[in-house]
Amino acid sequence: MLKYSPKSLLATTLIAACVSLSAAAQSIKKLPESQIQKAEVELNMRFLASDELQGRRTGEQGNLVAARYLAEQFRFLGVKPVTGQADYLQPVPFVLQKMAKEGVLIANGDTLNVGKEFVILGSDAVDFSADVVFVGYGQAADYTKDVKGKIVVAQVGTPESKTPQEIFAASNEKRKLATEKGAALLIELFTAQIPWGFASRYFGNEKLSLGTAASGTPHIWVNGQQKKYVDLFKNGATSATFRTSGRAQQNVMSYNVVGLIEGTDPVLKNEYIVVSAHFDHVGMGKKGGNTYTAADSIFNGARDNAFGTVAMLTAAKTLTLKPTKRSILLIGYTAEEVGLLGSKYYSEHPLVPLKQCVFNLNSDGAGVGDRSIVSVIGLNRTNCNTEIEAACKAFGLGVFADPAPEQNLFDRSDNVNLAAKGIPAPDFAPGFKSFDGEIAQYYHQAADNPESVDFDYLLKFCQSFAYAARLIANKPITPYWVAGDKYEPAAKALYGK
Question: Which of 60, 67, 189, 377 falls between 20 and 30 A from 276, CA-CA?
Answer without folding.
Answer: 60
